[in-house]
Design a protein that fits this description.
single chain, about 150 residues, alpha+beta, Nuclear Transport Factor 2, Chain: A, 4-stranded antiparallel β-sheet, about 20% helix, elongated
């Protein structure tokens, strides 16, 4: 490339770099194409006491205890199920329903359970998903301290 071409390329780069950024812009024409139109959340989430939600928590807890901790501990039942918050953050955030309950385990003890049901957070974003924490049994400290990070 000749010296003149290098100079033109360098000048064009400097001019583009000096342009102000697009603050709060929704996106350029490429980003607004058919595939990138953004989320369209409806906020329709199952209730805290739905059997499918509690069944998913039970199944995953039992699998985690067996697979990773080599424990026979399982969840046997739930009590005092209640919603603690619904969409507590910004209106454009992923809709979540925060819940709390008491979980009864196979060793006869009870533990506080905190969980969040999120829209489009399930398998490949096709359905709702659940994140949960059983107080006292968060062995890898994913939601430490005392399951606080699983609450709103």
């Amino acid at each position: 490339m000749s010296g003149r071409a290098w100079f033109v390329a360098l000048a064009a780069t400097a001019v583009l770099a000096a342009l102000p950024p697009h603050e709060a812009a929704a996106g350029d024409w490429v980003e607004m194409g058919i595939y990138l139109q953004g989320p369209h959340f409806k906020g329709q989430l199952p209730p805290c006491d739905l059997d499918a939600v509690l069944g998913k928590i039970t199944s995953r807890f039992n699998d985690t205890q067996s697979t990773y901790w080599h424990s026979t501990l399982t969840i046997k039942g739930y009590d005092q199920i209640r919603e603690t918050a619904f969409r507590p953050w910004a209106s454009n955030a992923i809709p979540r329903r925060f819940c709390a309950a008491m979980a009864y385990t196979s060793d006869g003890s009870k533990h506080a359970l905190y969980y969040a049901i999120g829209e489009d957070t399930g398998m490949i974003g096709a359905t709702w998903g659940v994140e949960w924490c059983v107080d006292g049994l968060d062995r890898n400290w994913a939601y430490n301290p005392a399951c606080r990070m699983a609450q709103p």
